[in-house]
Amino acid sequence: MADGRIIKALSGFYYVQTDDGIYQCKGRGVFRKKKITPLVGDFVTFDIDDNDEGYISEIKPRTTELVRPPIANINQAIIVSSATMPDFSTTLLDRFLVLIESKGIQPIIFITKIDAIDKEGLQEIKTYKREYESIGYTVELLSTKLPTDLERIKHYFSENVSVIAGQSGVGKSSLLNTLNPQLLLKTADISKSLGRGKHTTRHVELVEVGDGLVADTPGFSALDFDEIELEDLPLCFPEMRERIDQCKFRGCMHLKEPKCAVKQAVDAGEISSYRYEHYANFVEEIQSRKPRY
C-alpha cells in the first residue's frame, strides 16, 4: 500500500506521484460501480503489484473539485485575460470569477499584453485594475515580454496548486512556458479570421512550476452556471457578500427589493455599475436555464 497524488490522467490510466517516484495505476472496479471517477489532484491510496503496476483502492476526501476541467484539491485559480487580441472583457472576467468563487477557490487576475495597447487603452486597463483590487482581488499587469515579469509573478505559484483559466489566445501556455521552459507547451496561435485560439491542450496534468503545481488543462470548456443555485449567486460577488446582512429582507436578491444595501451601494458608486449589470444578467441566465431532473 502506498499514498500519493494523481498528477496525470490519460487513456484510463492514472499517474500517481509519491516520494519514491511516479506509478502508473488503474482504478478499482468498485469506483465504477459507485460512479466515482478518480481526478487529477486527488490524494489516493494504491496497491502495487509485482510489475510495479498500481491499483487505486481509496480516494481521500477532496477540499475542492472542478467538473470542467475535471480536477480536485486546487487552492488557487490564475485567471488570464488579455488587454488585446482578444480584447479585454469584464463580462468574461466576471464569468470566470463567479465560477471560481462558487467553488471556494482563491482567484488571482493576470492581464497580459499590456505593452500591445495604446496609452488610452492602458489607462482604461489600469482603471479596471484599481476597481477589481478595491473588491479585494489581486491583479497583475503583464507585458508580451513575459520573462521580464517573471520575478514579480513567480511567488504566486510557490507552494500552491493552481489552475490557469482564460479564453484561448490570452497567453496561458506562453505564461507556463516562461515559468518552466522545460514544459514546451504548444502555444495556441490566434486565428485572426476567427478571433480565437486553436485548442492545443488535450489532457489534464499537474506540472511543476516554481515550488508549486499547476494544472495544464484545456481550461474551462464551458462557462455556464449549471452548478450554481440562484440564491448562491450573490455570494460569488465579494462586494455583495459583505453587504448581505445590511439588506432589509433576508434572502434579498438585490434586484427589486426595497431597502437593499447592494442597490444603495451601486447608487453611491461603491459597487461598479458594470459588475451589478453582469450580476443581473447572470441571475436572468440562471432563471432561464432548463430544469434538471
TrEMBL record:
<dbReference type="InterPro" id="IPR012340">
    <property type="entry name" value="NA-bd_OB-fold"/>
</dbReference>
<feature type="binding site">
    <location>
        <begin position="112"/>
        <end position="115"/>
    </location>
    <ligand>
        <name>GTP</name>
    </ligand>
</feature>
<dbReference type="InterPro" id="IPR010914">
    <property type="entry name" value="RsgA_GTPase_dom"/>
</dbReference>
<feature type="domain" description="EngC GTPase">
    <location>
        <begin position="72"/>
        <end position="221"/>
    </location>
</feature>
<keyword id="KW-0342">GTP-binding</keyword>
<keyword id="KW-0479">Metal-binding</keyword>
<keyword id="KW-0699">rRNA-binding</keyword>
<dbReference type="GO" id="GO:0003924">
    <property type="term" value="F:GTPase activity"/>
</dbReference>
<comment type="subunit">
    <text>Monomer. Associates with 30S ribosomal subunit, binds 16S rRNA.</text>
</comment>
<feature type="binding site">
    <location>
        <begin position="166"/>
        <end position="174"/>
    </location>
    <ligand>
        <name>GTP</name>
    </ligand>
</feature>
<keyword id="KW-0862">Zinc</keyword>
<dbReference type="Pfam" id="PF03193">
    <property type="entry name" value="RsgA_GTPase"/>
</dbReference>
<feature type="binding site">
    <location>
        <position position="247"/>
    </location>
    <ligand>
        <name>Zn(2+)</name>
    </ligand>
</feature>
<comment type="function">
    <text>One of several proteins that assist in the late maturation steps of the functional core of the 30S ribosomal subunit. Helps release RbfA from mature subunits. May play a role in the assembly of ribosomal proteins into the subunit. Circularly permuted GTPase that catalyzes slow GTP hydrolysis, GTPase activity is stimulated by the 30S ribosomal subunit.</text>
</comment>
<dbReference type="Pfam" id="PF16745">
    <property type="entry name" value="RsgA_N"/>
</dbReference>
<dbReference type="GO" id="GO:0005737">
    <property type="term" value="C:cytoplasm"/>
</dbReference>
<dbReference type="GO" id="GO:0046872">
    <property type="term" value="F:metal ion binding"/>
</dbReference>
<dbReference type="InterPro" id="IPR027417">
    <property type="entry name" value="P-loop_NTPase"/>
</dbReference>
<dbReference type="GO" id="GO:0042274">
    <property type="term" value="P:ribosomal small subunit biogenesis"/>
</dbReference>
<feature type="binding site">
    <location>
        <position position="252"/>
    </location>
    <ligand>
        <name>Zn(2+)</name>
    </ligand>
</feature>
<protein>
    <recommendedName>
        <fullName>Small ribosomal subunit biogenesis GTPase RsgA</fullName>
        <ecNumber>3.6.1.-</ecNumber>
    </recommendedName>
</protein>
<dbReference type="GO" id="GO:0005525">
    <property type="term" value="F:GTP binding"/>
</dbReference>
<dbReference type="InterPro" id="IPR030378">
    <property type="entry name" value="G_CP_dom"/>
</dbReference>
<dbReference type="GO" id="GO:0019843">
    <property type="term" value="F:rRNA binding"/>
</dbReference>
<feature type="binding site">
    <location>
        <position position="260"/>
    </location>
    <ligand>
        <name>Zn(2+)</name>
    </ligand>
</feature>
<keyword id="KW-0378">Hydrolase</keyword>
<keyword id="KW-0547">Nucleotide-binding</keyword>
<dbReference type="InterPro" id="IPR004881">
    <property type="entry name" value="Ribosome_biogen_GTPase_RsgA"/>
</dbReference>
<comment type="similarity">
    <text>Belongs to the TRAFAC class YlqF/YawG GTPase family. RsgA subfamily.</text>
</comment>
<dbReference type="InterPro" id="IPR031944">
    <property type="entry name" value="RsgA_N"/>
</dbReference>
<keyword id="KW-0963">Cytoplasm</keyword>
<keyword id="KW-0694">RNA-binding</keyword>
<feature type="domain" description="CP-type G">
    <location>
        <begin position="63"/>
        <end position="223"/>
    </location>
</feature>
<keyword id="KW-0690">Ribosome biogenesis</keyword>
<feature type="binding site">
    <location>
        <position position="254"/>
    </location>
    <ligand>
        <name>Zn(2+)</name>
    </ligand>
</feature>
